[in-house]
Each structure stands twice: as structure tokens, then as C-alpha cells.
Amino acid sequence: MIDQAKKRALIERIKRIGFSNQTETLLTVEEYFDGYDADSCMICANNTPSVSTSEFRRHLAQIRSDSRVHDVYIRFYDFLDAEKSDDCWINSDMVFLVTTATPQEVEQWFAPLQGDEAYEETDLQAFVNPPVIPDGYRLVGIGWD
After folding, report:
1. How far apart are CA 90 and CA 137, in angstroms?
2. Is the pTM of this model over 0.85?
3. Which of the listed residues 39, 56, 57, 112 has the most CB atoms within 10 Å of its CB?
């Protein structure tokens, strides 16, 4: 189920943050999933079998509770489909973690969700709203095709 009012509010928030093809925009887990509950989560939409938004969110909460994780973000991709169709949510295909874990460890954490290869993102200028990264932590991204 998609709450259309919350979807419109999220699109407006993204517009206020600012975005372009040259920058990345990060959303909190709460921002991304508020008003979005579906049998197949947009982030890993190509998974077989499908992963529901509630399953995906539970998995993120479990990861976020790990002492090596400072925070978890969802990368905004686009909202063109979401604006055109009531059946679509804001597109995303990537999660970023502020963590002390290695990319290989992050891959293992997301293996049950069929995540792709994780990598350390070092170019914070690529983000219109870069996350706060405490000393000793790194930004690790993992996506889904």
C-alpha cells in the first residue's frame, strides 16, 4: 500500500533538498519507508523471491542495531515513475551505511537480500546532503540490479 499524501510530501522534501544528475541524495530509512508498504520492495525489486518492504526494513533495523553501524541511508534515485503512477514509490536501488565494518562484511550482512558488491564511498562531494561520518567510520554503499 502506498500513502499518496506521504509520497507527495517525500517528493517535495527531495525537491527542497535539491538533486541533479550530478549529485546523490540520501534519505533516512524513516523518510524513505514512511507511507510505503508493498509485497515487493522497490530497492531490491528484481529479487527472486520478492522481498517485502517490511522484511527489508526489519533487515535494515537489525543491521542498524549493530555496534559497528552509526547510521543507514537510502539513496534516492528518481521519482518520475512515482509522479506518473499511484502504484509506484520513489525509486532507489542502493543503501549506504556509516560503519566501521568493511565492504566485505557489509556484503555478508546483505547476502540474504541478494545485495550486490559493496564498496567504500570516499567522494562525499558526490552528495547534495552528505552524511556525518564520525572518526573511524566509513561510508559503504551496496546496491541491487
Report:
1. 28
2. yes
3. 56
